[in-house]
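Troubleshooting: if your tokenizer reports a length mismatch, compare against these two reference records.
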Amino acid sequence: MKKIAFFIFILFSFLGYSQKKALQAQLITESISIDGKLNEPAWQNAPIASDFVMYQPDNGKPIPENQKTEVKVLYNNDAIYVGVMMYDNEPNKILKEISQRDNFGTADIFGVFINGFNDGQQSFEFFVSAADVQGDCIMTDVNGEDYSWDAVWISKAAMTDNGWIVEIKIPYAALRFSDEDKQTWGINFFREIKRERKKYTWNLIDTKLGTFTQQNGLLEGIENIKPPTRLFLMPYASYYLNAADHQKTYATIKGGMDIKYGINDAFTLDAILIPDFGQTKYDDQILNLGPFEQQFNENRSFFTEGTDLFNKGNMFYSRRIGGRPSTEPTLNDHEEIIEEVQNVNLINALKISGRTKKGLGVGILNAITEKTFTTIKDTISGETRREVVEPLTNYNVLVLDQRFRKNSSITLINTNVTRNGDFRDANVTGLAWDLNTKANTYNLSGNVKYSMINDTEDKNGVFSTLSFAETSGNYRYSLGSDFVSKDFDPNDLGINFYTNYYNFYGNGNYRILNPTKLFNSFKIDYDMYLELNKDSGKVQENKISSEVNITTIKNNYYGLGVVFYPLQSNDYYEPRAENRYVIIPRKIETWGSISTNYNKKFALDLNPSIIFTDEAGRMAYGVDIGPRYRFNDKLLLTYTFSFNRKNNNKGYIDSIDEDNNESTPETIIFANRNVITYSNTLSGKYALNSAMTLNLAVRQYWSYAENKEDLELLPDGTLTPYPQYTENKNSSFYSWNTDLSYSWWFAPGSQLSILYRNNASNFERIIDKDFKHNVSALLNNEALKHIFSISVKYFIDYNAVKNKVRKRA
């Protein structure tokens, strides 16, 4: 009888948790001071949202009574207000590391998730840490949390004898909702107790389902509010002082403005006039020995903020805009480039994005870059000339994304690059789909893309992919296949390296949904992949892999993986020649990963790996070691040492076309080489308070490839000694970067940034194996370039200005 009663209790508890909770918002006329005290009378009478349940790790478990959370919501004609009391039976143990915005470090967190259309498609998430640090993002099931989105809102966190309090004001200009008289919003509240690594939500987020945004509760009672005019101006001014040994010190002053305008309740226009990206993070350059360019992260806020629509179909690589020129200059005999262009200047850019209440998302991005020249010198006469390496160019992206049934979408994407004059133009069109069953248990996704290139020789190509997956429960799986034609080329505004193949792949995995006596989380994956060249049918890639990822009860992470390449593969890209390939031997790779609990002052990340091949002496191994120490809530230092070594690596170094006869294949030279890489990175943060931080980022990198024997690539993909080649093709690249910055958010949305940066790099054919020398050679006035900059950005809200003017009148 007791067992039956217990079963009924569990059943009704689950049913209660699975239903959407509702909270009534209360209208106010009095002013609310955002001071973390909740002492205004309106807070005392507002309805309470409580009874939080665990999201992770023990999904569905009620929050303990001594850690209960109570949330209240008020609203007026300008904003909604959220007041939260988070009880804690051990308030002295609440973690509250001060960090930068959107990076909470080791601190307790409260969050509110708002979907003004209550359509289950996306949520605007606002977080406040126990250290009074803000974070915000846009959340979609497809792209997860996008923290590049920033809104302007006000919050205050305060500690009490019983826990901590958060008070939040979110202006309506930071949200999206309809113009209906009576509003019903999707809403959820989130709390993380960091020392226990436990996350709770007000409305249950059932982890058995493959969705997050559809499991919000309801916020009711908001009536007769109107979406405000969303017009924000962000003027800025910057000062740069540049110094280097080989050039005269010079200063530049820049000024411009970013504009954000809400066209209606759904769509927003973002524009940058006279852009300035001088304080963006430096790129982690490497010694690139492969056939493809190095892909860099996007660090420019305009191209990262709110770009989830533009990432549909994986067709947009924003670093193309304002990147390296698309052409190389034509050099005559005895000529050399004396002014090489690293980046093309961006003139301006704008984007329009948003989604209607019927689920249609529209994204338009347009950017224009300036006509760019390089300078060429005749080494005999001394005369110079200029040649265009990039004409005036227009970049455009159009996305139409129709969502339906709250969890599925079909998307049309087009990217277009038009260059002035007789330069290359490109157009790529894609259709993508992401279809989920009503219960979010199965998924069918894929896309078809078609590229058209107009150049000296026009070419068209196709890329298509299709996959099916089970997306819920303990056991999940996926199956898929891709087809890519030889002439598919999206690289004018996208990035894609591999073409002319078809593949098949599959995955099966098992995970626990609730903790056990040993693990907070446990997942095991099994993957298979086979890729075949479309013309020859030869294997281009193949692997069978398995990995285990575990988080223990003490919140230490462990991972282990094994990747087996059972067949010889044929690399059609490394030879850099049409229809040529090199045979890659069978191999086995294993890796491990350890990350200890970041809650502790000292933590360690360790990632070793090793690769064996069935070719004698050919192997690779490496390790990343990353200790970190949190001295107190203000100071954190993280250091990472990385080492990688490849023994008897085989790679391309040159091509020889001795008789200049098209009917005779060129001689392709490879090298048997050892490739060794070292890097050291140090990052530090000292927070003066939640609005001011000092940040340090240092990176030293050195990699060299020492050729031991020159080889000729034969038509059958094998390599044979080629002793007659005598040119030195060793490679050594070393670099140094330092950023020391100060950031002060002196008003909502307004920031003062001060940056000192130095950097140096060098590429040589002569390898000096003295590690100390390769570092010290860059740390002198002859090598280092220095930049000191100050930038001020001020946020102006049209509504605030309008209200002030009215009050004065």
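Reference record two:
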Amino acid sequence: MTDDVLPRPPVHALLADGTTVRIRPVVTADRAQLEGLYQEMSPENLRLRFFAASRRAADQAAERACATGCRGHRALLAERAQQVLGLAEYHTGEDASSADVSIAVAEGLHHHGVGTLLVEHLVSAARTDGITTFTADALSENHKVMRLFADLGLDVTRRLDGPEVHCSIALDTGDAYLTAVEERGRAADVASLRPLLRPEAVAVIGAGRTPGSVGRALLHHLHTGGFTGRLFAVNPKCTSLLGIPSYPSVALLPKVPDLAVVAAPAPAVPGIAEECGKAGVRALVVVSAGLDTATARALVTACRAHGMRLVGPNCLGIANTEPGLALDATFAATHPRPGTAGVAVQSGGVGIALLDGLSRLGIGVSSFVSLGDKYDVSGNDLLQWWESDDRTDLALLHLESFGNPRAFSRTARRVTRRIPVLTVDAGRTDAGRRAAASHTAAAATGTMTRQALFTQAGITATHSIGELLETAALLHSQPLPAGTRVAVVTNAGGAGVLAADACAEAGLVLPQPTPDLVDDLLTVLPQGASVGNPVDATAAVTESELRACVDRLVAHQGVDAVLVALVPTAVAVATGDDLVRALTAGPGRRARPVAVVRLEQEVPVTLLPAADGTVPSYAEPRAVARALAHAARRAAWLARPADAPADLDDIDGARAHEVVEEFLAAHPEGGWLDPRTCAGLLSCYGIPQLSWAWAETEDEAVLAAERLRGADGRVVLKAHWPGLVHKSEQRAVHLDLRGDAQVRAAYRDLETRFAGLLTGVVVQPLAPRGTELFAGVVQDEVFGPLVLFGLGGTATEVLADHAARLAPLTGHDVHDLITGPRCAPLLFGAHGGGPVDLDGLEQLLHRLSRMAADLPQLAEADFNPVLATPERVTVLDARLRLLPRRSQDPYLRRLR
């Protein structure tokens, strides 16, 4: 911990009841307010805090809290409307790794989560300062503080000493703690969204008499949609609009609305927000577009100051079709159909397309939020709402940007185990990312990073609105397949071939039927049928025969899904058989997914009413194949047990931070580490490196070569100077050097060619033969560290055979990294070479991940090549680049 305590910037966060507070460091000028905090406490609460009802102790505590800049001391307060609601602080003693913590909550505000929220922020600050343990002494009857400590999710040890209890709290913010923080955050988030999505009264601000205006359309939709609460218009020029009472200002409304929908010109929006906040409005939906930077900042400031949640600006609006509410505050062409899909989009156009598509399919919408520029309410908020609303069984997202991807990922991993979460992977190209950045408040990011997020979180990522709806139709109507084995049945051979090709291209498998299944199917199919895969039932198949065939395929253990490709024939017309009815009529929903392709179908996808639910019908074989592949991937993700990062007990994190701080102190702007510093940092994480030595003269290089020569006597010389990146391209490496003369000649060559640049050489023994791999890290400004793995050597950038996952890596993530690249078969012994040291490879990736997660200053890490042999995995060449970045806790509860 440094002598100068860095101040933490103020943030806003939610209490348990969903109200907003501001958390910031205490400053000297806060003393009077802190004295007031203690003066207003009852004698009993003073006694519990100070072990005696002492006003003098309270004054001393206020003075001590305001002693800013002291080594080993931090104090944070929570405030609302410039009133202090609580205080939490810690002081270290001789042991800088342990600190005494104290909490004070304003009279009458216990059980609102003030103290818990402050302690969470204090824990985050303490860990940044190198503190590993909090201690606290409390009276044994102080049940409030005991409950606070017990519910944190941290390991608490208590020791009774007379009337006092000594508590020791280990600041191990592992999965148990993060889960507890998540649960508190979810409850607070849902509470904060109730005024937005379940308002009892709504005011539309900006509605006028002009037909076709956005404000008037919003008011019309709320009125005609059947909103069951009270509805007002705010317009100083009229007393009634569309039969709705209108008032000159929010302050003059007969009832304070929970929600205000704003469709006013951009310059007026901050003033309207301030007026709404002063009146007690709890949530805003701002559909207005064109806010400049200053106007946007003023809007957010007003919402934060008055504790209002904000949707938008630049959005389509919101809707909640919940029975007894019927809230439609959008200006879409039609009202959304009530249903079970939750929808959150950043693009209004995408929102309209999804609303129309879900209504047409009959799935409908539970709640809809057009996030627009997403200054506050985000996809993460909506996931938590849908998780709790008891209505939503399908979540559809269109997100062009991410504010806190790691928090989003953690929420999505939990939610998607309960309901499918689907998204459109928008901004996959440079042009798409530029378009997204042009109309969203947060930065867009690269394809590989975003895809890693979706994969790790279990999110089903599609490439278009059409594919999203096609997949939603299948997931909504059918059970998940247990695997990728698909049986294709058709009444026309050509349609079956198209379906088979589509399945293979989507990564699905068409297994050949077993002899017993062939015999079984031939007993129910017409003469001339061909039982392979596809099963060609011929144009002569009847409705009952097709139903029997599908039922037998669904019941077979070697089949995970059945795709039926049908074309209309004169035979069916003549016999009166309805082949589609063979799939929809029956005793009930089938145990495995069944989908139909009808090439003559006019719409891309529809849901056919069935005896117990619906059956999805597609116009294109590729559409149903994509949907089945997505469903199979979801089933495989759900089948994996929950996992966590590896527990590595031989990490010297304290020394690693010292190495980083020392380097950045000498290089304030950051840069590439020299070989010795690089090796020192890798050793802190137990990352295996090939033996090496540093030499700055020809003689030193010879001596180093003599020490390092292996059994064959060969060594390698690698030039080094600050900023050297691609040694091979610069011809800055000499391989296969034998004897002193060759070492001297190689050194002189490097010294001559790179005169004025060369600072020394790295001497290594020539590595044995093996598979050359690449492992690395790129620190994304928004997403955090991305770990890459794949084929290494000089061709790594040309072939780009890499997989990527976001750190910290779990065991599943490491497995996916190793098996993802095209070179993976080489690692498992393809071509008779025998498998490489897979345990060692897994350890390397876990340790690289841990280093990246521990050190936000690590901008880049490049291990190339990593030599993998059956005996070991070794880093032959490593480059690390540091930048002066401040650590930010991605899981700390705070608003955007």
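Descriptive notes for reference record two:
- The longest strand covers residues 858-868.
- Residues 431-445 have pLDDT under 50 and may be disordered.
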